[in-house]
Task: structure prediction
Amino acid sequence: MKYFFLFCALCCFIAVLRLPIGYYSFLRLIIFVGAGVALFHLIWNKVYFWAGVFGLVMILFNPVLPIYLYKKSLWMPLDIITGILFLCLNFIKKEEENNKEEKEEEETLSPVQGDAVRIRDRIVTPRK
Result:
């Protein structure tokens, strides 16, 4: 998924250039699908703030009921921001995975209540 999100970001950055209308239709479809996949993964990982952000990106780049802003000067900042969001998505997922791994390690290392933790065997000397 990392490369697909990088591809989505690259497409957004290319959209700043002067291109034919067909590219922008393609861009709507790619970003809509990419935001949908990101939304699914973010909800699955319970990162609800970023899920809401990518939900808004999905609505903005919807190819079925498109939102027309009619001026390229209005779309350019949105394309750049969306590209940056897709780049940040790779780091967001890594931070969440790292946090989950740390929690799992803490759970496996911490003793269960009632269990005695013995680091090494005790040496008992007999009494005389």
